[in-house]
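Hi X.,

You mentioned you wanted examples for the new student's onboarding notes, showing what a folding record looks like when two proteins sit in one file. Here is a clean example. The first protein comes first, with its sequence line followed by its structure tokens.
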Amino acid sequence: MVALTAPLRFDVISLFPEFFLSPLQSGLLGKALDRGIAEVHITNPRSFATDKHRRVDDEPYGGGAGMLMKPEPIFAAVESLPRLPKQEIILMTPQGEPLQQALMQTLAADYDQIVIICGHYEGVDERVLHLVTREVSLGDFVLTCGEIPALALVNGITRLRPGTVGKADSLKYESFEAGLLDYPQYTRPASFRGWQVPEVLRSGNHGAIARWRQQQQQIRTQARRPDLYQQWLEQSDLESQ
């Protein structure tokens, strides 16, 4: 687990700070922020626009559809922030590396400040890439704004910090944590509309339950995510050598 010495600081560069109001106050994320496990600061790049219309976008050189976010307000917004020793500056973009659990684990463990730039329109001026240290994508699709993937990043990282999730051991057995999808889970009643909870889960035999869960993880991953299952097999072979 991550050794917690200070709150993990998130600085989100966003044209729409109001987008984050309700999500940052809700559920486990809201409780984690209240307890000082992490803190989120929103900076609007429009506040750093210098023209009378406070423009943050302009037409792309060479023509084309849509508008691009200008570099000056973004640079000014980021440079206005306090700089902690272990800082990562992330641009949320469909062109970035896929957001995976391993990346969130790294960000939760190795950094004390994460700056997230939310793109809009047709994206950002290419020169903004000289500012960022990492580009991240939520997946192979396009959204209307970068705030949605930014919120996913804040949520996924914060929940890995000690104290956010009540039972820390529960993090060890989730999908992707061990390279496999999660096993099936059941609660009361034992019978619902003819569907029964597997007998092994009601047996009280913890060894048998553990073996069943591991087997189910492998079966489920092989059926639903054969790509992950192949990676897991390869990694298991390496570890056994």
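Then the second protein repeats the pattern, sequence line and then tokens:
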Amino acid sequence: MNLEQRITKQFEDSIAVKQQSTAILAPLIARAAHLMVDALLADGKILACGNGGSAADAQHFAAELVGRFERERPELRALALTTDTSILTAVGNDYSFSEIFSKQVNAFGVAGDVLLAISTSGNSANVLAAVHAAHEHGMRVVALTGKSGGLMNEALHEDDVHLCVPHERTARIQEVHLLCIHCLCDAIDFHLLGDD
């Protein structure tokens, strides 16, 4: 296999995983969007967290809501818990890395808010701690995972939404996560603004 064929296979694999995920994830994304819209309309907010590429996804999601996705609308209350380096390094140093998100959920989260928790494996200790903190504050959780959902699968409550990409490869899971995030943004705008 030459390089061009290898690249073509990456595209084909990505397309296949998205097609396999559609029937499973579409109704769950719609349910997650309803949760988020309900929170926003009740003057609540959405907190988002994840590590590495998932941290970038959390920031991407918050940016689309605070700014705009594809249409102009008022700013929406979303905050990525991955961006304040002083909080992240202070909590990581003084307590533990596993508390970098949960302490922020404890500080900013209130009943009725939503936590978007992103972990491709579902096993990230700091994301799991944030889920537990969210539940303690009466928040709902939308989890983006892959593989089997890992420990996140067990930590979620019945009224949470678990978007678990049915694949083992991290790169493919992350590609579907980005699509899910864009679907959530579009669905939120659809609920708030109607059809184009």
